[in-house]
Amino acid sequence: MPARSLYLALLLPALCAPVAARAADQAVTIDPKSQGRVFEGLGALSAGASSRLLLDYPEPERSQVLDFLFKPGCGAALQHLKVEIGGDVNSTDGTEPSHARTREEFDHPQPEYYQRGYEWWLMREAKQRNPQIMLDVLQWGAPGWIGGHKFYSQDNADFIALFIHGAQKYHDLAIDSCGIWNEKPYDVNWIKLLRKTLDRSGLKPVEIVAADEINQWTIADRIRADPALAAAVAVIGSHYPQAKSTPVAMAGGKRLWSSEDGPWRGDWPAACILAKTFNRNYIQGKMTKTVIWSLVSSYYDILPLPNSGPMKALQPWSGHYEVQPAIWAIAHTTQFAQPGWRYLDSACGLLKGGGSFVTLHCPQTPDDYSVIVETADAKAPQTITFCVAGGFSTKPLHVWRTNERSHFERLADIPPTAGQFIVTLEPRAIYSLTTTAGQGKGAARPRPAAEFPCPYADDFESYAPGKYARYFSDQAGVFAVAKRPDGRGQCLRQVVPEKGIEWQPMFEPYTILGSAKWQDYEVAADVSIEHSGSVSLFGRISTIDQNADPPHGYILSVNSGGRWTLRACKALLAEGQVAFPADHWHKLRLRMAGPRIAVSIDGKNAGTVLDFAYRHGLAGLGSGWNCAAFDDFAVRPLAGATLPNLAQGKRATASSQWSDQYAARFAVDGDDNTRWNSAAGKLAGEWLQVDFGRKIQFDLVSVRQFDARITKYTIQYPDGDRWLDAVSGDTRGQASWTAKFAPLAAEKIRLLVVAVRGDRAESDTPSICELEVYDTAAR
């Protein structure tokens, strides 16, 4: 059956005949003598706790996900796996544990230290599916004992060497390359020290990649001027290079890698971006290997940079996962060319009508080659003449195509005629043309999606000591199953005693679990502070920023001196004093029913407040930078809110609107994903008004705005033809705030924008997701 978008034109016997070139939009010569650089493969990066939830998946779904990622002829067929060397610090979406948490552990390593986390397991699974896969490692941070809190130290070089030795000794894994410090300024002398340390440790085959900075190639200049540095560094790696390197880097004799890249998404637009990236990294920057972050989106999507991978696997409780189009963009290269193949530079370039193409040749079987083409930017079909020079391979070409409608589809073969073939390429598609066989598309299907179960409980008795507890995701510190200090079974223990050398500043230790849709529930746990410090319960965690701020949710904390606090993120809601001695077990309970937030300590009600900042989110456990134990963790649903939102569904108007998609009604529809936005250029002086339809009593307004643009406001109500002020306030730069005032009765209410954070017409226009009105006296 003829292909819908490819056809074969029978041409006169000639090599790139002028008439054929004129008949096509472009002519390309495939010449085996035009050998370029050696292709080193495509890979993905498991770091920043991005693979955390995959470990908890049931079978067979867990193996299916791994097959789609690593198994040849199934899906992405990744040729490299890069993993984080855990440092007990947050590295984007969580903390990855280290193999030497203290100097004592470093000096006296035990086999169980090399079972922590999931990167060892992941590397083994990748090797099992593809024994030829290459393994790379890189640090984001390090434990606090390293080098007197100095990353670039002999301690850290030894720490890396011990990790690589542990991979070999305990998991039979040979690490191929090692980076420096993720996206941090490099230290030339330390790079040389690391090389000496690896060599002295019997790790000469492990190559050093430097310097893993964002779109920077300055180390190429340093290498050119420093022979010792040149001897230490095997590969120059840059992150997100935008398909460009530098003349010095390209001429310096070192291999060039895009050692972290990608669009941080897996949908069809991401597939197009990846196809462009893979081709153009070589065409324009002469990079022979590209590694994308993340390997798989297997972390809660309230965390930074959600859905960053080519697959989604963030529901281990249901077994559901998603194979996204980005998987097939990767497959269009990895299933058609292997590391060790050579680019044929005469057949690598840009398409005149939009797009790019690369051609790779297999040295082991000289008649085999593959052409990978992307037309992501093309607006119309293009016809390309491929001329096979010098009697090169006459094998038929197998053709595979991915577009928005159909992923990784096999089309009709193309037999070259008289050394030529013509291909018509549709726009916004990816093609692979190859003389090889063995490509395939996995057919496994996951279970249906389901919400995280509630109620939920865990007594931590079913795990081996040292392991993660199911579904918990550590955001700072490390929470591992351990024997209870009193000998009564097992508990979950925060085990990091001090802040490490951080990649980025982070809040105190805490771990999260649950659903972003959880609303009214109670979270409880037995807790014990070891010696001194604090413990915490978290509820309704809606988002977590990539900085040192607390998570956006409610936090109940108690310290060993007995002081307790209840906060909504940074805002203090309540505090008090109780008896709470360390090294004893206590019961903490945090209840959230509508706006009522209640605290219970050791079975006694410590206080109840009314707060509207957070309506839904995950639960969690936490501590200070101290060791602490947790047991009998439980979440159970509660009856819903008893205070109705008087504004929801009522008639709303505004001074202006950006468009119909940002009309006033979206600020009272009960959906945080929609919003009102004033018109372009409309800043201070704008207003949003709600008409209740009759006179009602109210005394509190709660606002959730987009991007924290409004800085000062006034709540107003009508008195005849006038608008009177009920209260004025400052939002303190917060996206959510509450305004309380003396009870009043009115038919309408108005939020007047007094000031915004700047004067830029597009980025500072007032924008409100939800405006809510309550009568708290009715409680």
Which structural traits does this protein have?
779 residues; mainly beta; Jelly Rolls; eight-stranded antiparallel β-sheet
Give an account of the 3D structure.
By secondary structure, this protein is mostly beta strands. It folds into three domains: 39-355, TIM Barrel; 456-637, Jelly Rolls (Sandwich); 651-778, Galactose-binding domain-like (Jelly Rolls). It has eleven helices and 43 strands. A hairpin with a 6-residue loop joins strand 24 and strand 25. Helix 2 packs across helix 4 (119-129) and helix 5 packs parallel to helix 6. The radius of gyration is 30 Å and the shape is globular. 50% of the residues are buried. Mean pLDDT is 94; it is low at 1-22.
